[in-house]
Design goal:
By secondary structure, this protein is of the alpha/beta class. The strands form five sheets. It has a five-stranded parallel β-sheet, with helices on both faces. A five-stranded parallel β-sheet has the order 7-10-13-6-14. The longest helix is centred in the first third of the chain and has 27 residues. Adenosine-5'-triphosphate binds next to helix 7 and helix 15.
Length: about 450
């Protein structure tokens, strides 16, 4: 097997020779200045580079060393650069770490100590490469950017893949921020209507009085302010998919009109007299407990059956084994690129905090926290404190630890039981009312 390449950027030829001789486990490539270092980087793509900051034409300063560090990391950001700090240059070594170097060592060189740092750098590089490979593999095709590695979400994706080609209505149930809109879009893209439009409307965000016009459109002069004829969202989605988010917030009066559209597949704009046929697929979502709403008359049962030919339950993020860490890594890389390129990953305490947190706001909360943390991070790694999870992680106290465990177990049981609350309760060994209480308490309805 060929030996891994260690690039030594060093203008002292005698020292470079000594390193080549000492590190026989590696193929040591030596570069004496910045240009040679970059050539060697392109040619050998070394995982690890040792860098003397004092390079010609500035052998007594550090400017050329820092420029080399910048160029190396710009060309190959995953490279582990270990910086040499001469006597009294500790401050520049620390600055180099801030600029993205992986570690530093003090001159004069202790061959064994540097050897350990180098070996560890190769090891970490290999782990990170493996992580990236796994993360890349975890991105499934077809569901527009949805990230997961958990069996719980794999099951959801499979269900949606199966129903995408059939022109049935789909109801997505899940707490806020679990990715319902992303899944609805994925469903559209995997369906024969993919060439048509995906039109989304959040029924909770629009005042009751305006919702009807938004959905059905209006003719010019239908009401004060209706200065021109306007198509509603339903018409806009003709040939494509209409995503009705927060369907549980549609008032009863409008539920009747929606039902009529779903039965007859024609709409009438407000103030219009013409029935306009519209062919669109309906996907809807809610975080509310629609079963309970139907039971106490807040949601029409006949409409429910039209909208929910297929019901898919989206587990809370805390109930997806391993997904929070995976998604956090993705967002760190994503936001680091534009907001703070020095940041390369999550510190160990941050990873533990991400795994332990209950994520009441699900993926949206995770994305927001990571984004803010990337901006706030002072070094290469995002810490638990940057995520604002430092004191609030699951081991804050027994109650939060229990809640996290409850959420995970309930989410999994619901997925396993295909959303059937009685079956999930049996799996969990608790009564149905107790499970309902827990679903309510943790806002896990659906
Ligand atoms: N599995 C995932 N992988 C990557 N990003 C995700 C995932 N799930 C959700 N997101 C992102 O999280 C954010 C929230 O997702 P989305 O808007 O789909 O949630 P939602 O369930 O519709 O929320 P709400 O009910 O509050 O409208 C979006 O920015 C979305 O891109």
């Amino acid at each position: 097997m060929s030996r891994p390449v260690l690039l030594v950027v060093e203008d002292d030829a005698a020292l470079a020779r000594q390193l080549r001789w000492a590190y026989e486990a590696y193929e040591v490539v030596v570069a004496g200045d910045r240009a040679a270092a970059l050539d060697a980087l392109r040619l050998h793509e070394p995982a690890v580079v040792t860098l003397d900051l004092g390079l010609p034409p500035d052998p007594d300063g550090t400017s050329e060393g820092f420029a080399t560090l910048r160029d190396v990391l710009a060309a190959a950001p995953a490279t582990k650069v270990i910086v040499a700090s001469g006597h009294g240059e500790r401050a520049s070594a620390l600055q180099a770490i801030g600029d993205g170097a992986w570690d530093f060592y003090a001159k004069p060189i202790d061959i064994d100590a540097l050897g350990l740092i180098v070996a560890r750098a190769f090891h970490v590089h290999a782990l990170e490469a493996e992580n990236r490979r796994l993360a890349a593999r975890a991105v499934p095709s077809g569901f527009g950017g949805l990230l997961y590695a958990s069996p719980e979400m794999a099951q959801v994706a499979r269900q949606l893949e199966r129903v995408a080609p059939a022109d049935v209505s789909v109801m997505l149930l899940g707490a806020s921020g679990t990715g319902k809109e992303l899944l609805a879009r994925g469903l559209h893209e995997a369906s024969p209507r993919a060439r048509g439009r995906f039109v989304a409307i959040n029924c909770a965000a629009i005042p009751e009085t305006l919702l009807e016009a938004e959905l059905f459109g209006h003719e010019k002069g239908a009401f004060t302010g209706a200065v021109k004829t306007t198509e509603g969202k339903i018409e806009q989605a003709a040939g494509g998919t209409l995503f009705l988010d927060e369907i549980g917030d549609v008032p009863l009066s409008l539920q009747v009109k929606l039902l009529r559209f779903l039965q007859e597949r024609v709409i009438e704009r407000i103030g219009g007299r013409r029935a306009i046929p519209v062919d669109t697929r309906i996907v809807c979502a809610t975080h509310q407990d629609v079963d309970a709403m139907v039971a106490d008359g807040r949601f029409r049962e006949d409409l429910y059956y039209r909208l929910a030919e297929i019901v898919v339950r989206i587990p809370a993020l805390a109930a997806r084994t391993g997904d929070a860490g995976l998604i956090a890594r993705h967002f760190v890389q994503h936001y680091a690129r534009t907001l703070n390129p020095v940041v390369t990953g999550l510190a160990a305490d941050a990873r533990a905090a991400v795994d332990g947190w209950t994520w009441p706001g699900n993926v949206r909360e995770l994305e927001n926290r990571v984004k803010r943390a990337v901006i706030m991070a002072e070094g290469k790694l995002v810490t638990a404190a940057d995520l604002d999870l430092g004191t609030a992680s699951a081991d804050l106290n027994l109650r939060t630890a229990r809640e996290a465990a409850d959420r995970r177990a309930i989410g999994r049981a619901l997925v396993q039981a295909d959303g059937n609350v009685s079956a999930a309760a049996r799996l969990l060994g608790i009564s149905r009312p107790t499970l309902y209480d827990l679903l309510k308490a943790y806002d896990l309805q659906g």
